[in-house]
Amino acid sequence: MAALAEVRDPELHRDIVSLNMVRDVAVEGSTASFRLVLTTPACPLREQIDVDVRAALDAVPGIDEVEIEWDAEVRGQARREDGPEPVTGVKNVIAVASNKGGVGKSTVATNLAVALAQLGAAVGIVDADITGPNIPTMLGLEQGGLAEGQQGLHTMEAHGVRAASIGFVLPKGTPVVWRGPMIGSGVRQLVHDIDWGELDYLIVDLPPGTSDASMSLAQQVPVAGVVIVSTPQQVAIEDATKAIGMFDRLGVPIFGIVENMTSDIFGRGGAREAADELGVEFLGELPLAAAVRKSGDDGVPLVAAAPESEEARAFVELAEQVAARCSVLQYAGDAGVAA
C-alpha cells in the first residue's frame, strides 16, 4: 500500500490510496492483486493510471506480477441545505445548453448520453425542449408511442439510455403551445416526477435561450455542470457567451464549451478562442459530417451506428472529458482541487 500511495490521480491530484480507489489488496507469492475503483467508468486517464501503478509496484522487492481488477464508482453530489431538491436515484445532472438554436445541442446530448452508457455508466436523458422535442427521433423511439397508454409519461430505453420526452405522449406533428411558466413547470416534472431508477448521469437537453426552461432547471434541480455547445461562427459564440453568463450568475458550474460542426464551411477555432477569453475549459471539436446528420435522422446516434469512425471518437472523447470534469468538481470540496 505504501508504494501505491505514491501514485496520484492525474485529475484529482491526490494519491489513489487516500481516495479509496485501491481495495481488496492481496499478495500471494510474487503476485499482487487488488481492485482499482475509478471515479467514473468513462475515465480518460485509465491507461496513465495503469502505467503509474505498475511502475510503482515494479520497485517493490518480491513483486513480479500485478493483477488489477478495474471497477468504477461514480460519486453523487452532496446535498446543500439551501439547495434544490435532488433527483431521486440520480447521482449527477448534466445540462447541455446554448443560447442559440441550430447549433446541434440535441445531437451532442444524445451522442454524449449513448457514449457514457457505452463506457459503462447508467445514463438517462431528458428532452427539456418542450416545444420542439427531438430526442425521440434521434434515439429511434416512436413519437406519440405512449399517447394511447394508461400509464402516462414514463421512460423508454434505447441504445442503453433511459429517455423521457413530452414527445412520447404527443402524436407526431402536434404543436405544444405553452406560455413560459408552463414550460418551466414541464421541465421540472420531466426531471423530478419521472422514475429514473438508479443513474450515474442524467443528461438534460435544453432548448435555446436563457429564460424559462434553463432558469427552472438551474433553480429547481441540483445541476452538476453544464456543457455549452457552439458552432465556430461569431454570432454563435456571442450567444454561447450569454448562456455562460446566465449559468454563472445562477451558480451552475460550467464544464466547458464544445465546438460543433467544425469545418471549412462554418470555420474552426471560434469556440476555443472564446473558451480562452472566458476562462473556461475547451472540451473539443466535433466535425461537420453527413454521417452525424444521417444517424440522427435514422434514430441511431453515431456512437452506436459507426463507433469506430473519427466522428464517433470525437463524441466519446467529449464524454470522457465531461465525466472527468464531473468527478473533479465532486471531489473538489474535500480534495482541495480547484474546479
Structural class by secondary-structure content: alpha/beta
- Total number of helical segments? 10
Number of strands: 11
How far is it from the N-terminal to the C-terminal residue, by CA?
29 Å
What is the approximate shape? globular
The biggest beta sheet, please?
A: 8 strands, mixed
How many structurally independent domains? 2
Series of secondary-structure elements, N-terminal to C-terminal: EEHEEHEHEEHEHEHEHEHHH
State the helicity in percent bands. Answer: 25-40%
Here the CATH topology of the largest domain equals Rossmann fold
Return the CATH class of the largest domain: Alpha Beta
Give a description of the structure.
This protein has an 8-stranded mixed beta sheet, with helices on both faces. Helix 2 packs across helix 10 and helix 4 (180-192) packs across helix 5. The protein has 10 helices and 11 strands. It has 339 residues and is an alpha/beta fold. It starts with 21 loop residues before the first strand and ends with a helix. Helix 1 links the parallel strand 2 (31-38) and strand 3. It folds into 2 domains: 4-72, Fe-S cluster assembly (FSCA) (GMP Synthetase, Chain A, domain 3, 2-Layer Sandwich), CATH 3.30.300.130; 90-335, Rossmann fold (3-Layer(aba) Sandwich). The chain is 35% helix and 22% strand. The chain is globular.
Name the descriptors:
disordered C terminus, 11 strands, 2 domains, alpha/beta, globular, 339 residues, three-stranded mixed sheet, 35% helix
